[in-house]
Amino acid sequence: MASCGRNLVPISDFPTKNDRLDRLKQLFLETFGGYPKFVVRVPGRVNLIGEHIDYCGYGVCPMALQQDMLLAVSENNTRNIVLVNANKKYKKQVLEPAFSGCKSPEWEHYFLCGVRGVQEALPGDFQLKGMNIVADGNIPPSAGLSSSSALVSASALCTFYINGITPVKEDIADLCAKAERYIGTQGGGMDQAIAFLATDGCAKYIEFNPLRATDIKLPEGAVFVIAHSLAEKNKAASNDFNCRVVECRLAAQLLAKAKEVDWRNVKKLGDVHNMLGVDLVEMIQLVKSLLHEESYKKAEIAEILGISELEMEENSLTKNTEDVKTFKLRQRALHVFEEAERVRQFKAICEKTADVGTLRELGSLMYQSHESLRDLYEASHPQLDKIVDISRKFCYGCRLTGAGWGGCTVALVAPDKVEEYLNALKVEFYADLNVAALI
């Protein structure tokens, strides 16, 4: 059994000199009158390539960050969760563990997602212990670096551990991916997988169904710079993210119908791909030949599938996309299959002998990824595009990372160009915003 030991720090094993942990312990002492039993740490992540394809069933290439979510935890003698954040902008919460979702999620709801995921994994008569918790996160929120998933994952891990259960890494990663959907977004499993399966010194190629992770050793001389666009979007507060999930689902179902396979069992583009047994290049050609460029209306989709609009809504849409009138199916499907092919090429290139040519190949794929996310998936933002444009003078490649509509870019830079690139961003991007916000 693989444990989650790297994500857990018993209080007796605290580093002797760590200012952040010392402050966390002190805040816990001041709040609850004693020291925590243990601390949970879950890192943020940056996705190097493979955006908006994990929920379609395709592999991705993230790596963990130093920035993380810390939870200092001890049990209490109630059934409630007392949740305090080191950041005073978040109010103290006294919560019951039950959670059935919400329309306008706050930070504590992400914590409750993790608790609910654990509840559903345990026998129905299992009584969870109450917890006292102080949270301290330094992953920028709404930045595309997985701050919310880190909180969900940390929540689930501390709930298991306080109740005497040590889960298998792959199992808890899968559990957390499903649990976060209670917040309302129909995401994939990339963020949770890298949170538990990351290893030092490499990125990961993460595949799904079943979940598995393979080390990707990045070439020597590859430096990745993350820059915040300072445009923020709470993906759980809009339907943009779920609309893309639904458009991919509908595209998959229309492709399945056209190829005379059982579309009712198709939920992801990866499903129809597997049913047809062809390669990604052939899937790209099928999309181009079978799906038209104009947006599809509900009535047209229902007619093609041979069902009513109401049945289509019940089978394929989410609650917050039922009012969407038109869907761009060809564009979304093309991005997914082409991005999956870029991931395959990225992994293959990393396995070659590293040289400048290798870095240029990787960078080219990153630029292609951003252009596709901007044009086909419409998930970029003018401030992201501006950073990518600036990067072209200094970097091998650059792209948005995370869900998009704001957040961060990740750029592949040669070591001797890093300082020049950072200075260019300060002068050409951040100066206009009157800030200096490099991560």
From TrEMBL:
Q: Please name the InterPro entries in this protein's record.
A: Galactokinase, Galactokinase_CS, GalKase_N, GHMP_kinase_C_dom, GHMP_kinase_C_sf, GHMP_kinase_N_dom, GHMP_knse_ATP-bd_CS, Mevalonate/galactokinase
Sorted alphabetically, the Gene Ontology BP terms of this entry are:
galactose metabolic process
Its GO CC terms are: cytosol
* Span of domain GHMP kinase C-terminal: 351-425
**Do you know which Pfam families this protein is assigned to?**
GalKase_gal_bdg (PF10509), GHMP_kinases_C (PF08544), GHMP_kinases_N (PF00288)
| Lineage top rank: taxon | Eukaryota
What GO molecular function annotations does the UniProt record carry, in alphabetical order?
ATP binding; galactokinase activity
Gene3D superfamilies per the UniProt record, alphabetical: 1.20.1440.340, 3.30.230.10, 3.30.70.3170
List residues of the Galactokinase N-terminal domain.
27-74
| Entry keywords, A to Z | ATP-binding, Kinase, Nucleotide-binding, Transferase
Q: Which residues form the GHMP kinase N-terminal domain?
A: 112-197
The family classification in the record reads: Belongs to the GHMP kinase family. GalK subfamily.
Entry protein name? Galactokinase
